[in-house]
Amino acid sequence: MSNYIFAPQEQPSVAVRGSSARYAVSRIYCVGRNYAAHAREMGGNPDREPPFYFTKPANALVPSGSTVAYPPGTKNYHYEMELVIAIGKPVFRVAVEDALDAVWGYAAGLDMTRRDLQAEAKAAGRPWDLAKGFEQSAVITELVPAATLGHLSKGRIALSVNGTVKQQSDLADMIWSVPEIVANLSQFYHLQPGDLIYTGTPEGVGAVQAGDLITGEIEGLDTLSLKVAAAE
């Protein structure tokens, strides 16, 4: 007999390359403005800003290869191509030199954004939840274990819309590297297995419309794709 009034939702999880087992997800953290050129295009100053974070609910996850409806409440639906870190062991207040020990694997991801709602929130000094934390806003490929891939510090990251390249950079251009992100975030949270960290996007973010096909790539990881369908 269930002790719940309503049946719990299915546990959010991500497929793992070469395994039938899945990575159960509890929390999703996102790094803002982690590439200098993107920070500038969003009106920031990468020379002065420390890392900052926002979150998405775990049930915002959607696997690469999906078709999603154009989301409600926006007329400016943007892509942001990102490297995703998967945490593999508990860590709190870890030093930078020890932080990679907590990284279990990596994936390619999209932080989909209702940019007009984000702009409104910024102007009013309000949280970004409506702009960032909506359904199907965290796209992700299969995870690749660091034990087989190694740790990522450089490599091409790119995104195309309908075959036209829109974003193109290198992971080496991140302002805050993977170990620096993990170490910094662990000063504020007890990071646990099941935590994902979207590490920020290069310059070139832009809007998509119903009918568009987004594809993305990061060296060593699976190719990402997302089809945008008409609004519900």
Describe, in plain words, how this protein is organized in 3D.
The chain has 232 residues and is mostly beta strands. The protein has one domain (13-64, 74-155, 166-208): Alpha-Beta Complex (Fumarylacetoacetate hydrolase, domain 2), CATH 3.90.850. Helix content is 14%, strand content 35%. It has five helices and 18 strands. The protein has helices at residues 36-41, 115-124, 129-132, 146-149, 178-185; strands at 13-15, 22-24, 27-32, 52-56, 61-63, 66-69, 77-79, 81-87, 103-111, 113-114, 138-140, 144-145, 156-161, 164-170, 195-198, 206-207, 213-218, 224-229. Strands 3, 4, 5, 8, 9, 11, 12 and 15 form an eight-stranded mixed beta sheet that branches. Strands 6-18-17-13-14 form a five-stranded mixed beta sheet, with no helix packed on it. Strand 1 (13-15) and strand 2 (22-24) form a beta hairpin. The model has no long low-confidence stretch (mean pLDDT 95). Keywords: Hydrolase, Metal-binding, Pyruvate. It comes from Roseateles toxinivorans. This is Fumarylpyruvate hydrolase. InterPro entries: Fumarylacetoacetase-like_C (IPR011234), Fumarylacetoacetase_C_sf (IPR036663).
What tags apply to this protein structure?
single chain, 232 residues, Fumarylacetoacetate hydrolase, domain 2, 8-stranded mixed sheet, 5 helices, 18 strands, hydrolase, acetylpyruvate hydrolase activity, Fumarylpyruvate hydrolase, metal-binding, pyruvate
> How does the overall form come out from the CA principal axes?
globular
Listing every helix as H and every strand as E from the N terminus to the C terminus, the arrangement reads EEEHEEEEEEEHHEEHEEHEEEE
Mean pLDDT: 95
Helix content: 10-25%
CATH superfamily: Fumarylacetoacetase-like, C-terminal domain
The beta-strand count equals 18
Query: How would a crystallographer describe the biggest sheet?
Result: 8 strands, mixed
Whole-number count of domains: 1
Structural class: mainly beta
Uncertain ranges? none
Corresponding CATH architecture: Alpha-Beta Complex
How large is the radius of gyration?
Answer: 17 Å
Please indicate the percent range of residues in DSSP E strands (runs of 2 or more). 25-35%
Protein name: Fumarylpyruvate hydrolase
InterPro entries: Fumarylacetoacetase-like_C (IPR011234), Fumarylacetoacetase_C_sf (IPR036663)
GO molecular function, one term: acetylpyruvate hydrolase activity
Keywords: Hydrolase, Metal-binding, Pyruvate
